[in-house]
What does this fold into?
Amino acid sequence: MEVNAQSLVRPLVEQLHAYAPGEQPKIKGLIKLNTNENPYPPERSVLRAIRKAADERLRLYPNPTAERLRIKLAKFHRCRPENIIVGNGSDELLALCVRVFVEPARATTPETPRSRSTVQYFEPSYSLYPVLADIHGAHKNAVPLGQDFDLPGVAALAQRWDFEAALTFVTTPNAPSGRAYSKQALHGLCREQRGVVVLDEAYVDFAEEHALNLSLRLPHVLVARTFSKAYCLCFLRVGYLVGNPVLISALHKIRDSYNVNGLGQVAAEATLERLAYYRRNFERIKKTRARLTKALTDLGFSALPSQTNFILAKPPKSGAKEWLEALRERKVLVRWFSYPTVKDYLRITIGTDAEVNTLIRAVKSVLRNLE
Ligand SMILES: *Cc1c(COP(=O)(O)O)cnc(C)c1O
It folds into this structure.
């Protein structure tokens, strides 16, 4: 008798709602403002370093701990290489955190506090966190953000927050709201927390301040960074965590031996030699961001102030999903999320100035059609 393939898949996996990444369409002439990629290329010497490394050495395994990159990152952040783990994108590291710090609910006894198997995060924030919790069979504590996507006040927090949760993810600046939380507020939140806190700073290079120091001062705080967004290397998948060596070495224990590909390591190392180029890039994107925020506001959108490389904006006159489709017909792709807290908004990545001009023209054309 033939084996029924479906019966081999664990029910947990069968029922899982997988993470839905933004589309990577191949439509010619389409302007892609849907996945927060950097619109500008990596610096020339980074491309050169990658090309130079692509020779017969491809048959060799890469350095298993991304040692040279960790040494460079340690210099950059004024810490030690032992404070750093590099991952196949920061997404991999977020998943490793769940596996290291959170008990699967089924592995606990009735006496185990629920907090030991709880993954906690704000809503809305990065929609990967609940998926990671589900994959692991953990409990989720999704806590609504306050007014205008700010952190909830003390009273609201006291009601819903689990101060003992095994793992708490805080996206800062937040996605998809684009809003940053002050260092002081983050410090306050971390200080009250008994479990591990991951500050996911994927967009921090476009913000006014960062909270990396918290990961070097508090033993239970990790900061996640990535080369994807600000450093134009989505394609190569390199991210890292900074934090206490005890937590970092626990994460090292369970990762794949060669989790970071060699070309990614080379590219990230070369990137750290060219920070001036990237700082100019951030300034350019921030300038375009200000211009787009104003243009959208003038056209009747309610655009939230952003500290990231995208804007969350509520379009006028018609639903956000209809706008998504209308813009797509005009060859501009933005992102729309169906969940209740943000379903009335579009998330628009900051492109080049030319791309943003095309978007503004497309918006005007949609508006004329709605008149
Ligand atoms: C893009 C993103 C990541 C993942 O980055 P990679 O390093 O490409 O895996 C993590 N967190 C947030 C909030 C992001 O937006």
